Amino acid sequence: MSTQPLPLEGLTVVAVEQAVAAPFATRQLADLGARVIKIERPDGGDFARGYDTAARGLASHFVWCNRGKESVAVDLKDPRGLALVRRLVAGADVFVQNLAQGAAARLGLDAAALCAAHPRLIAVDVSGYGATGPYAHRRAYDMLVQCEAGLVSVTGTPEQPVKSGIPAADIAAGMYAFSGVLAALVRRGTTGRGGPVEVSLLDSLAEWMGHPLHYGMHGGTPPARTGLAHAVIAPYDAYPTADGGLVLLSVQNDREWHRLAGQVIGRPELAEDPDFATNTARVAGRGATDAVVAAALAPLTAPEALARLDAAGIACARLNSVAELADHPQLTGRDRWREVESQVGPLRSLLPPLVFPDGPEPRMGRIPALGQDTDGVLGELGVPEAEVRELRGAGVIA
């Protein structure tokens, strides 16, 4: 039986957001119990709604990042619509926005202005490159920031750099915005004051580039692109098996190499061979290292190889497809799947990673249709029904 409420129960978040970074941050807040009121344009809403129709007619990005929110469709370019949003913000605990650089300030919805007017408010500005500096006003989309941050330069094969298959810059910024809100809430609990929070995609992804950045800055040479291999650890790669599978393994230290050599490769003498005994030697002779590992795994099926590696205490994995992730036995075995309501019916979704064993499950609320909650939220503000009808007729709300 639950003994604790969800951590953010009772908090209200207003978000003027679009695409991935800010919506991903506020979805985490909604999952943990906050009320999240999402402000969208009446003429189509968050443009991520139109990215695709893969989720039974809904956009997969939108389904992923927007469950548990209320959608209020308001035209911020109309003074009447902007005034309504200002009233909502005045009663909120947190405000999050990721409009184009300068747009929030022109509307008076930037963090500095809002926090000056509402001292307990925590206001988050999510941008591509930050509020200052020579790139401040450049458009920033995930792939562009991946390139600017150097992620693409270390991802791929020696012949071909590639971007990450997920929106890494957006996710990084979203998670720092989420953790920034939590930190600011703790500070408000001790000081009584909120304050502005700034997060940029470039800063976030540059932080995630810490290993190659420090390796390159201090070692003189940036890590090479090595496909599934690791630039500075060996063996660390994918190896083919007799049934056409690929098994990945990672040896993190020389003790593990001793076990791999004796129990999997069947050549215990390699543990003391100067060409293989240390990670530095194995990396220098990566071709020979990979060859002996590949020769040992090639006669085995993938399940046989994994069983042998597991028995030796060697970290290993299958190279799964997205479909195989959706049916992963570990996710199923831990009961990680739920159904989330939407306008097209229930959609299968994963529980969020944060687990609070002494509290209720995260609140995986419905995915809102555009403007689904406009009337209810305006009613809470005390806007008369006649005025709501007038605003809708004028296209200020939807």
Features:
six-stranded parallel beta sheet; single chain; 17 helices; alpha/beta; 11 strands; 398 residues; elongated
Give the radius of gyration: 25 Å
Query: Quick one: overall form?
Result: elongated
The strands making up the biggest β-sheet line up spatially as 3-2-1-4-5-6
The low-pLDDT segments are none
SS class = alpha/beta
Tally of DSSP β-strands:
11
Characterize the main sheet.
Answer: 6 strands, parallel
Instruction: Assess the beta-strand content as a share of residues.
Output: 5-15%
What does this structure look like?
With 398 residues, the protein is of the alpha/beta class. It has 17 helices and eleven strands. The chain has helices at 21-31, 60-65, 79-90, 103-107, 111-117, 142-148, 168-191, 201-208, 210-219, 254-265, 279-284, 286-297, 302-311, 322-326, 329-333, 374-380, 385-393, and strands spanning 12-16, 35-40, 69-73, 94-97, 122-127, 195-200, 236-240, 246-250, 315-318, 337-340, 347-350. Strand 10 (337-340) and strand 11 (347-350) form a beta hairpin. Helix 1 (21-31) crosses helix 7 (168-191) and helix 7 packs across helix 8 (201-208). The longest helix is centred in the middle third of the chain and has 24 residues, at 168-191.
